[in-house]
Every structure is written in C-alpha cells, then in structure tokens.
C-alpha cells in the first residue's frame, strides 16, 4: 500500500509539473498582457511596469520564477485587482464552495432515492417517466435553463431573486442574512442539481439493478428481512461502493466554482472572478487559479482511488 | 402424525419472450416433523423453483406461482400477506443456497449477517444476538468464533461459508430447513463435513429438512423419503430404502444405474441417453418418453398420473397402469 | 504466385469474420427499430438535419438582409418567430444557426473519434513507450476540467485575433482536443482486453500480420462501442459549443449559432420583453441533444451487450 501510494504521489507531481508548463506557456505565449490593455498609460510607463513585474524577461526565466513562487504558496499578484491572487481566491472561493456543497448534497440525496426506486420498480411507469426526465435533464444547456428559470421565477412570477448572493444594498444581519442568502441560492442550486442528478441517478440505478440480482440479496430476503432493510442495507451498500470513487472526483468541483452558473446567476464566486479575469487579461489570476484546478483534479483522482481501496473489503493492495 | 408442510398442486410458471415455461407443474408432497425429504433430478427439472415457491421468493416479474396451496402451521403460504410470509421466512422456514461464496453479502461482516434474523425474528438485543451468533458459529464447527464474526465473507473458504449459511439458517430454530444443493459447489472432502453439520443440527432440534440435490450419494446418506422430479413433475416418490432397491420409474432406474458404486468395476458408467426436453416444447405426453427404453405408444400421447405402485412408493409411469396394459 | 497463395490462405479465416458482422448489424438494426423512444429520437434528428440544411432554401428571408424598419417584431404570420434587432427573420436564422451548430457537433465528434481511435489503437496495440507517451498526454489534458479549458482556448483564440470565419473550424478542433483522451482510453482498454482473447492468440498462431490483425480482427470488435460513444458525444459537443458561443468565446456573429443567438438574453430588455429571440434557440439545442441522447442510448442497448442489463 505504501509503495503504491508513493508511486502515485510521484506520478501526481510529474503530471502537475507538465500541467504547470502547459498552463504557463499557453498564457505567456499569448500576445498582449494587462499592461497593453490599459490605454491611459504612456509607452514609458508601460515599459516601466513591465520592468517592475518582470514581464520583459525571457519566458523561461519567468516560468522558473513563477514556479518557485508557486512552491512557496505564492500564486502571484493580480494587476487588475491590485491584490495577491491567493487572497483573491480565498475571498471568492467560499461563496463557490457554499453553492457547490449544497448542490452536491441534494444531487446525491435525490439521485440515490431515484436510483433505488427506479431500479426496484424497473419498467414501471414511474421508472419510465423518471428515465425520460433524466434524459431531458442531461440534455439541457446549463446557461439556457438558468436564464429560463430566471425569466419565469424572477422576471415573470417575481417570487425569487434574479441573481447575486444578497439583495443589492441589503443590510440584513444574523438570521435575516441567512434567509436572504438561501433565497438567492434556490435557483442556482436547482440548476446545478438538475444538471448533475441525471447521470448520477442513472449510474446508481444500473448499479442497484446489478446488485439486486445477486445471491446475497436473495439470502437477505430468505432471512425474512424487511424489504426496506434488504434494499437500503444489503443492496444499496454494495451499489454505492463503486459510486464512492465518484466522491473523490466531486472534490475539485466543490472548490472550482462553476463558471457558467455563477455568471448566469451573478453569484460572487470564483468562477465569475475567473471569467472576469479573461476580459481584463489578468494572467496571474488566470494562471494561478487554473493551476489550482489542476492540483484539485489530481488530488481528486488520488482520493477516489484511495477511497475505492479503503471501502471495499475485497480489494487489497 | 400431521404433516409439517403440505404442498398441493403447486404450479409455478415463467413467462418468457418465446412462451411459458412450466417450471413446476402440479407438484404435491408433504414433509413430516423431523423427516428429511430429498428431491432429486437433473438440473432444470424444477427442484430449486419448488423451494423458491415455498419461500415466496420466485423472482418477478416473469416468474409466478399460478396454482396450488402450501399448508404450513395452519396457514396457506400462498395466500397469506407478504408481511406474514416475511415473518415465517428465516424464522420457521429457512433456506441454504447452492453458492456459499455469493450468498453472503460481501460488505457486511459474518457476525452481523448471523445477527440479523435473530434481531428481527427473536427480538434479541444487539449484545444478545452477538453472543448467540458466536454460539452458532461454534455450533456449526468453526473454531475462533470471535475472529470469524469480525471477518468478511471473502476471508473464509467455501466450506466455512456454507457452514455459516447453516448457522444463519438454524439461528431461529426453524421447523423446516430447505437446503438447495448445499454441497454442490464444494470440494468432496468438505461436502461430507457440511452434511455432517446439517445432520447434527437436525438431531439437536428435530427440525425437518427438505434437501435438494442431484447427488444420489447424498440422498442415500441423508434421506428418509425421496422425491424424483423430471421436467417440472414428480415422476416417483417413496421411502429411501425401498426406492433405492426397487426403483419403478425408468428415469429413477436410469439415475440409479448412472451412479458409480465403489468396489464394482464396470466397463463404462451408464448414462441416460438424450437430454432434458426443452420446457417450451412440451406437449401432452410422458415427458421422459424420448429417453425411455420401454417407451410405448401411449407414452407419446398421454401423460401418466402419479399412482401408488407399492406399499410405500408412487410412480407416474404407464408401465404400472392397468389402463395401459389393456390397450 | 507465392504471393497469391498467401493471400488466398489469409482469406479463409477472414471471410468468416467479415460474414458474421452483417447479420449482427441487421440484428441490431431490427432490435433498434423496436425501441420506440430511440426511433423517435432518430427521426427527430433527421428532421432537424433536413430542416436546417434544406429549410432555409425555402425561406424568403434567407439572404439575412438587414431591415431596421421591421426590427424587434414579435412572432406573426409573416415572421413565425419574430425578428431580431436588425430586422432579420428569427426562424430562418435559427435554421441557419442549426446548420452551424449541428456541423460543429458532428465534425468535432468525428475528429475526436478519429484521433482517439487511432491513438487508442496504437497505445493498446503496441504498448511500451508509445503507449506511455500517449496516455500521459491524455492524463495531462484531464487535469484541467472541460469548461475552463474550453474557455481558456476560446480566450486564446480571441487574443491571437483569429478571424471570425476561421473560429468555426478552430472551435471544432478545440472540442475534439478535449474529446479525444476519453475515446483513446476507452479504445485502449478494449484493445488490451481483446488482445488477451483466444481468437487473437489464434491469429498469432496463424501468423497473421499486425495490420491484418488490427483491421480485420480488433477494429470490428471495437466498432460498435465507438458508434455508441460517438453518438452520445455529439450531444455533448453541441452543448459545449453552445455554452462557448453564448459567452462570446466560440462561434461569433455574424456567423449564427444556437449558442450565440441566446446571447440576446444578455441584453436586459431582450431578456425580459423579447423571449422569442432567445428561447427558440435554447429549445432547439435541448430538443436536438435529447433526441441524440435517446437514440444513442438505444444504440448502446443493442450494440453493447454488457450494458443491456442497465435498461
């Protein structure tokens, strides 16, 4: 187990090194930078700024610098926002996290219930209807359904706020503040759940279908266990095993924010900040956060691997 | 003596895309308290489906018990509610399956799996159930009970798992234990141990056993009464000694001849020619006719009924029918 | 002469292989035609293709002429889906956009299938260092999630000042760039399992050449799987393109695409008061993708025996 982990970690570092090269050169070979963007600056001032931020040094030297800072936990300095990237990310990431955690919770909760019931009642009317619904949910463009829901619930019916995290100019505090944020979360969370629940429910359904055919489920019934115990203790436990690997993959999603959803619902999260950074050519932030995404993904993969091995008593490394 | 369980005219059908399979076709028999009844026959003859019908575990949506009654303890198991049946399963009637390796849940410890029926049917507390589970593990002849209770199925051998299955099955002291080919998947040496465990637990509690097997050696070892099934129907039944000495039905005769006898050398082991008929293509006839040495015209067109052919034996064969003799 | 005889000798086992698939395919098609949902999906996709590629020819507004006088008209008998801010007919534009969106979806999928299959086969068949290299590149591309990487590429495209006419093709390349690693991994793992099968060992015994083994024995076995993931992938590609174009990083006006038509919703008045501008393209994406997915799922049921239990 230890040597396996060690090998995995080593490979992880190598892949991250590759990712950092890819990310850095993609951005640094692009013509134009933040300084170019700013039309009010004179040529001399621009040259000066480039000197200060090291933008005029050779590409490779800049990479080494960037990498060296990264390793010390310094993600760079955002010229557009005039603040360290790490600080910016910290400011925005928790808003994204809040949205993602709530959405992920509901997604799994609903998907498990749908998966079990549809598998248990395979070919019933309910099963068919849910399957059609799942196909529909998997086929909706996220930005469109977001816009559509805003149009219906916020513009036409006026029962939910159209976007943001709090009402503009609101000074709510304490409990009122929580209620207000929750109100604003309803639509984005609904969209995220809608988009995620389909494939997960389908996956769980096929797992449950596979499991309820197994001999040990028959044994559980023969023991005289209640049908609910048979399903949720004996069948679900086995059906969820392969799904546990997915938990690892979900991890980066919790912190990476959702560019599309946050933009549509004007949620002050990291995804929206990321999108803004494109328009102002905020390379340090773009590079820093993209690197963070890569780190999260790699950790997620490792985590799902470990979880898989830890959860199944049959698998031994 | 009143029978413990009485099965009358049981029919279980499976509806497949290409037609209806009469897996169990008008089967009647009874089991008395303390008796061991063996059901023998080739694979696919409806032995297991009979067992599953008794347990109410015939798998839908294709399979269904279509007719008959199963009298047990003054109740008809086919007519009582699902909830009532559930309270009988694992409690008054329990079952052991053929594949011990896959019959236990891979992600739940052995101990917990033994405790489950105890907690449900006997309402034992967790602690009591655990203590009882340890007793049961030792009872079926496995040492180091505590260590076993904490392990997962994949850590034990097939023979041990089957004994664990027995422990689960006898945990609530059932009146009837159905054992569906309990030794088929095991090594020969282990088979004897498992049978011994079965026999011991029977002696301790005077339960009845319905043993399904295709191994006539097992039958000779365990049975009081034997039922021979072929293509979903009972073709012969009788006391074990009688039936082994004077088999009436040509199929039973064939089965007994195909069994190797130690100390007796033969050129070639006998085997019944042909195969079990396709259950979808059965027509009104003796289902065994195309494999039978003594096939007569009537065998091809009419089905014989199960009739008394000697003091303790019944057979379904035209050879023993007055009617056929006269024709 | 000797050349001919080896060719003849090689043909014997060959014919058996090539004879089996047609009946299998026919079987699959027969089974598929019984699946009503899948057939409905298939018919809808065909309808969509015909409407988008032929429909505009019958429209009086196909030239896309700007007429400010009739801008922002709501749906009417003359303009079924109204007109946009330049007075163009929305229905006609919707169909023309469909042309682009469907083409991008189909072409990018075809491209990623081709790249993925070729690299997957090379990886799985030759293994060793080549395999290592290809799979490490695939791993690398997997480290950054799909949407961010698409946005980055779209942004770089703008920075490099790619002319709008070419963006369309670059979008296809971008989509296939993130599409191929998945395909390659799948094909590779299939190849690895197939290699171990008896008939491949039999092929070894017969001394068949590498190329023959690849194209006559292995490829036909991976083919059904490829068709399934290819079909399902088209839907994904259409969705990705629409998102990218909606955010102004994919296909750009004046080239219409369903995604950039929804861009109208970014204008507050259009969003609130003129839903005919952005709801129809959204529904078009939705309907097309759902039809493709339902059809793809039906295909999976008949072509991939392992997955049949799931439905």
Overall description:
The complex is a heterotrimer of chains A (317), B (327) and C (311). By secondary structure, chain A is mainly α. Chain A has a single domain (84-309), classed as MetI-like fold. Chain A has 13 helices and 2 strands; from the N terminus they run H-H-H-H-E-E-H-H-H-H-H-H-H-H-H. Chain A has helices at residues 2-28, 34-37, 43-53, 59-71, 85-120, 125-139, 142-156, 174-212, 215-222, 227-256, 259-264, 270-279, 283-311; strands at residues 77-78, 83-84. Chain A has a two-stranded antiparallel sheet with strand order 1-2. In chain A, strand 1 (77-78) and strand 2 (83-84) form a beta hairpin. The longest helix of chain A is centred in the middle third of the chain and has 39 residues, at 174-212. By secondary structure, chain B is α/β, with parallel strands linked by helices. The longest helix of chain B has 18 residues, at 188-205. Chain B has one domain: P-loop containing nucleotide triphosphate hydrolases (Rossmann fold), CATH 3.40.50.300. Chain C is mainly α. In chain C, helix 1 (2-34) crosses helix 11 (279-303), helix 2 packs across helix 3 and helix 3 (90-126) packs antiparallel against helix 4 (128-142). At the A-C interface, helix 1, helix 6, helix 7, helix 8 and helix 11 of A face helix 4, helix 5, helix 8 and helix 11 of C.
